[in-house]
Design a protein that fits this description.
It comes from Streptomyces tamarix. This is RNA pseudouridylate synthase. It catalyses: a uridine in RNA = a pseudouridine in RNA. By secondary structure, this protein is an alpha+beta fold. The protein has 5 helices and 14 strands. Strands 3, 4, 5, 6, 7, 8, 11, 12, 13 and 14 form a 10-stranded mixed beta sheet that branches. A two-stranded antiparallel sheet has the order 1-2. A hairpin with a 6-residue loop joins strand 13 and strand 14. Helix 1 crosses helix 2. The longest helix has 13 residues. The radius of gyration is 22 Å and the shape is elongated. It starts with 21 loop residues before the first strand and ends in a 9-residue tail after the last strand. 29% of the residues are buried.
């Protein structure tokens, strides 16, 4: 597979509520008309009648912003755009805080339960969509991601041309991330303890797992910093960024993070319990700015609530 181009294709449709239109790139194929392809592509999800209705409404547009007709000849390589019809989403009842904002970046305090970017059933109700709307920054993009159930710092980039520089910092592990977690107290050395293991997250499986004996692909440094009865507060510093890494490593130490719905036992899916967030917070980000070379450190203003 060839190297993916870094050039961002700007579509003709404006965002709706901070959500981008979908770009449809037409592949090579045998379809005679645009309708034939769109029905093949989307009828299973929304039905052929709805595809026809969207064509009649002018919902699908070409690069010039003009609606396309279903009977137009099919042309592989062409791009179309349209807005998804989004089902209602429950609003996460917490606000996104702003820790820092300048002409290049926004450092936000994402609350628990709010997804960073559109994915699955969370599209309009995401930190990215909210910030685009609230700050009037339609080109805002994240430089990295934070799990939906984890609260704390996320770095967003204001201008598309600057995004690669900040993404490279995270890719090359030149950002020091510091987390906090509440978990059971375990007698023994306060730490720090370094945990290394091989973590696998399979597509379609909600929980990740460790592979005993395999070459480690993850590393975390974990230190107990405070005790309150049978619970403790831990400082977590990941050296790598595997999916659910800190949650998996805390569980492996016998101190699973409080109110974790996956580790050690997968909780049955159900309505969100906003009173029982995962007690994990992305507390600090520290790096050298790629543009002016200045050292920067950002700290979350959120705090983990002790139970009781």
């Amino acid at each position: 597979m060839g190297r993916r181009s870094a050039r961002r294709v700007v579509g003709p449709l404006e965002q709706r509520g901070g959500v981008d239109a979908v770009r449809v790139r037409l592949p090579a194929g045998h379809w005679a008309t645009l309708r034939d392809h769109l029905v093949d592509r989307y009828a299973r999800a929304i039905g052929a009648a709805r595809v026809d209705a969207m064509l009649a409404e002018g919902a699908f547009v070409g690069a010039d912003g003009r609606p396309v007709a279903g009977d137009e000849p099919y042309a592989a390589g062409r791009s179309l755009w349209f807005h998804r019809e989004l089902p209602p989403e429950e609003r996460v009842p917490f606000e996104v805080g702003i820790v820092h904002r300048d002409e290049r970046i926004v450092v936000a305090d994402k609350p628990h339960f709010l997804a960073t970017t559109p994915r699955g059933r969370h599209v309009a109700e995401t930190a990215l969509a909210r910030l685009r709307r609230d700050l009037g920054l339609p080109h805002l993009q994240p430089a990295h991601r934070l799990d939906r159930l984890t609260a704390g710092l996320v770095l967003f980039v204001v201008r598309p041309e600057d995004r690669g520089a900040y993404q490279t910092l995270f890719r090359d592990r030149r950002v020091r991330k510091e987390y906090e977690a509440l978990a059971p107290y375990e007698p023994g050395p306060a730490g720090p303890v370094t945990v290394r293991s091989h973590i696998v997250k399979e597509r379609g499986v909600v929980a990740a797992h460790e592979v005993p004996g395999a070459e480690p692909n993850s590393e975390s440094r974990i230190e107990r910093v405070e005790r309150r009865g049978g619970l403790a507060r831990y400082r977590l510093v990941p050296e790598t960024g595997r999916t659910h890494q800190l949650r998996v490593h805390m569980n492996a130490l016998g101190v699973p993070i409080l109110d974790d719905p996956l580790y050690p036992v997968v909780r049955e899916d159900g309505p969100e319990d906003y009173g029982r967030p995962l007690r994990l917070l992305a507390r600090a980000l520290e790096f050298t700015d790629p543009f002016d070379g200045s050292p920067v450190r950002f700290e979350s203003r959120l705090r983990l609530a002790w139970p009781g």
